[in-house]
Write a structure and sequence with these properties.
The complex is a heterodimer of chains A (103) and B (635).
Chain A (H helix, E strand, L loop, with lengths): L4 H21 L3 H25 L6 H30 L14
Helix pairs in contact in A: 1-2, 2-3
Chain B lengths: L6 H21 L2 H25 L5 E11 L2 E9 L1 H24 L6 H20 L3 H19 L6 H32 L4 H10 L4 H18 L8 H4 L5 H10 L4 H8 L1 H6 L3 H20 L5 H21 L3 H28 L17 H14 L6 H15 L3 H26 L6 H6 L5 H22 L6 H13 L8 H28 L4 H16 L4 H46 L7 H24 L5
Antiparallel strand pairs in B: 1-2
Classes of the chains: A mainly alpha (103), B mainly alpha (635).
């Protein structure tokens, strides 16, 4: 018995919107980064599922997941570095408090 | 020796660089020595080149490098050495050398000595490029170069307002003439697809050209020549150019630069001959300028102004000669004039030097006892200017008026004879007021002194040249050395030279000498015997006298009609530039700045807002894609 594709997509969409809501509503910069990670993994799940389903036609979807991992790692590295230097500048990690960069 | 011809301009160029780079700080009065030695070496080389051309090398092109090459059109930096340019090289370098030597004395006490010799060297370099060039474009380089140096040297004493105003005037009027030259060479390029003299003249000889376009070329080139050679209508800068140091007046505004217009027309003679009516224009303009300037010279009191108007008048003679188809006579007169007019200027300079800067002839008088060398040399030059045999001016001027007569231009001939009489009168007047009579200003007279040897020696050498040059190269008339030498050039131009009979020549010579003697006689009567008294004559001639003194009101006419109009146009252009062009640019910048101010608010700096915007954008894209997939935007 195989799990139908729509299940995977539904889980993926769910994860994505949870992450999305987190990014929009949370104020802690580290949590926001974690939520972005959640959204990326939602995308990974969808990629793997589609790749598995249409594997006979194209297997590249699962290869793309590797790229997304790399992007995610880079994103975390840069994001945490930004948060860290912002924190050194002013000891807060609440993103609403950090708005000196406004135009 | 001809292969070394490029060394001739190289020496003055080197002197220019050395004096310009090191003169101010280190060289002091050595700048004059360096420049003189450089020009002296050029003069020696020019003599060598001249002898070699004389020895039979009629036409040599010495290339240096290819300057412009586009498709089948090319312009080389190359020298065309033929009798014409050989004569010019010789005249330019020899006269320059003597004037450079003289300048060592004349300018000795000037603070700007190094600047003077720097520009003078550059001038000689540019002038040599002008006469050596084998094409119109390279000639134009020299043409502009001498114009620049003329500007710099007229304005040499720029601390006072008159010199720099005169320099500006000279530059602007020369630029107006250059406009004509430019039109001329652009048309030549369009018609012949070449700038090279020999190419153009070959094409002219082998294929038939439309008269109209050739006339345009010639009139345009001649307009350029009127600017550089101070002919009507662009003459009025030359008298003002006397604000420069006297050696500059002698070298640039008498002996060399102002003759470059004559050289241009002589060089382009095949074009002018082919273009029919343009030669008439040259002749008429030359004759009218000659008599026009001579009448003004009658009433001037500034010794240098007399010489300046005299130069304009003599240049008119040269154009008259070209116009009646006697280029050899024109070049002959150019050469003799370079000697005797340089001598007159240097003599005037010596007088001015001896009187500590006084130029007004009314304050001179009796100076022959004080400065004998200057007096005797200037007397020789004056005689040459008045065309007394056997001095240089006689042979060349006589050939010009004879050519006018023989070729059937009787009106031009009459003008030439009348001008000869006027010339003799004004030079008699000038020399008398300066050297004879009683000293009119005893203070000046008592302090007057003869110039140092470094100044009088060039005077003597020029005096010897003035005395013997005419008979040496111009005898017998019409068949003299200069004619045989220039024959190939004249023949190539296709000018029909009528060789007059001996009786005609003698008769014409008697008439022109008579004209000179009449002029001198009237001068002596008026200024020695005071019968009639000059002041009485001036009163009797009333309106005519005022016309001459005010130089025919030409300057005023130009001021009111042209300068004011140009100012009005410039003012309007300025207003247009400030209000329309600048205004447009400023408003555009203002609008962009305002837009930026508005858009600035988007950058809140709050991360949540950015995230929301990204999500909204994503949603928008999703909706758009969905709509597209569903086909609601059509396919």
């Amino acid at each position: 018995m195989t799990v139908p594709l729509s299940f995977y997509v539904a889980v993926s969409a769910g994860l994505f919107f949870i992450g999305c809501a987190g990014v929009l509503t949370r104020r802690n910069a580290v949590v926001i980064l974690m939520c972005v990670e959640l959204m990326l993994n939602a995308a990974n799940l969808a990629l793997v599922a589609f790749s598995r389903r249409f594997g006979a036609v194209d297997e590249r979807g699962s290869v793309f997941v590797i790229f997304v991992f790399v992007i995610a790692a880079a994103e975390v590295a840069v994001g945490l570095a930004i948060v860290l230097s912002a924190y050194r500048n002013r000891p807060v990690i609440d993103v609403d408090e950090i708005h000196q960069m406004k135009g | 020796m001809i292969s070394l011809v490029w060394l001739i301009p190289a020496f003055p160029l080197a002197a220019f660089l050395i004096n310009g780079l090191f003169g101010r700080r280190w060289l002091g009065h050595w700048t004059g020595v360096i420049a003189s030695v450089a020009v002296g070496l050029s003069a020696l080389l020019s003599i060598g080149v001249f002898l070699e051309v004389l020895g039979g090398k009629q036409q040599t092109v010495v290339g240096l490098y290819r300057w412009i090459g586009v498709g089948d059109f090319s312009v080389n930096v190359a020298a065309l050495i033929d009798p014409l340019s050989a004569v010019m090289l010789l005249v330019v370098t020899v006269v320059s050398f003597l004037i450079f030597v003289y300048s060592n004395g004349y300018m000795a006490e000037d603070r700007g000595l190094w600047r003077f010799f720097t520009w003078m060297s550059l001038f000689v370099f540019a002038m040599l490029i002008l006469v050596m060039a084998d094409n119109y474009l390279l000639m134009f380089v020299g043409w502009e170069g001498v114009g620049l140096c003329s500007y710099l040297l007229i304005g040499f004493w720029f601390e006072r307002p008159e010199p720099y105003l005169a320099a500006k005037k000279a530059f602007v009027m020369n630029r107006i003439g250059d406009w004509g030259y430019t039109i001329g060479i652009i048309t030549i390029f369009l018609v012949f697809n070449s700038m090279n003299f020999l190419d153009i003249f070959n094409r002219l000889a082998t294929s038939s050209m439309a008269q109209g376009v050739l006339t345009i070329i010639c009139v345009a080139l001649f307009f350029g020549a009127t600017g550089k050679s101070a002919q009507l209508p662009l003459y009025s800068w030359l008298p003002d150019a006397m604000e420069g140091p006297t050696p500059v007046s002698a070298l640039i505004h008498a002996a060399t630069m102002v003759t470059s217009g004559v050289y241009l027309v002589a060089r382009s003679m095949p074009l002018f001959v082919a273009a029919g009516p343009s030669l008439e224009v040259v002749g008429v303009v030359g004759a009218v300028t000659a008599i026009f300037a001579a009448t003004i010279a009658l009433v001037q009191f500034d010794i240098k102004r007399v010489m300046a108007y005299s130069t304009v008048s003599q240049l008119g003679y040269m154009f008259l000669a070209l116009g009646v188809g006697a280029p050899a006579a024109a070049i002959f007169h150019l050469a003799t004039h370079a000697f005797f007019k340089a001598l007159l200027f240097l003599g005037s300079g010596s007088v001015i030097h001896g009187l500590s800067g006084e130029q007004d002839m009314r304050k001179m008088g009796g100076l022959r006892r004080r400065m004998p060398v200057t007096f005797w040399t200037m007397l020789i030059a004056g005689g040459a200017l008045a065309a007394l045999p056997p001095l240089a001016g006689f042979w060349s001027k006589d050939e010009i008026v004879a050519a006018a007569f023989v070729n059937g231009h009787f009106v031009l001939y009459a003008i030439g004879i009348i001008t000869a009489a006027l010339t003799a009168f004004y030079i008699t007047r000038a020399l008398w007021m300066t050297f004879y009579g009683e000293p009119s200003d005893h203070h000046l007279y008592d302090h007057a002194h003869e110039s140092p040897t470094v100044m009088t020696l060039p005077l003597v050498l020029l005096g010897v040249g003035t005395a013997v040059l005419g008979i040496a190269i111009g005898f017998p008339p019409e068949q003299g050395f200069i004619h045989r030498f220039l024959d190939p050039v004249v023949e190539a131009a296709g000018v029909a030279e009528h060789a007059p009979e001996l009786a005609t020549i003698l008769l014409l010579a008697v008439v022109s000498v008579a004209a000179g003697v009449v002029g001198i006689g009237i001068g002596v009567l008026m200024y020695v015997r005071h019968r009639p008294d000059p002041a009485a004559v001036a009163r009797a001639a009333g309106p005519l006298y005022r016309l001459f003194v005010n130089k025919y009101y030409i300057d005023e006419l130009y001021d009111h009609r042209i300068v004011e109009a140009a100012r009005a146009i410039a003012g309007a252009s300025w207003a247009f530039d400030i209000h329309i062009i600048d205004g447009l640019a400023n408003r555009l910048g203002w609008a962009l700045a305002m837009g930026g101010q508005g858009l600035r608010r988007v950058q809140t700096g709050v991360v949540g807002n950015y995230a929301l915007t990204i999500m909204a954008g994503l949603l928008l894209m999703l909706v758009a894609y969905g709509g597209y997939a569903a086909g609601i935007f059509g396919r």
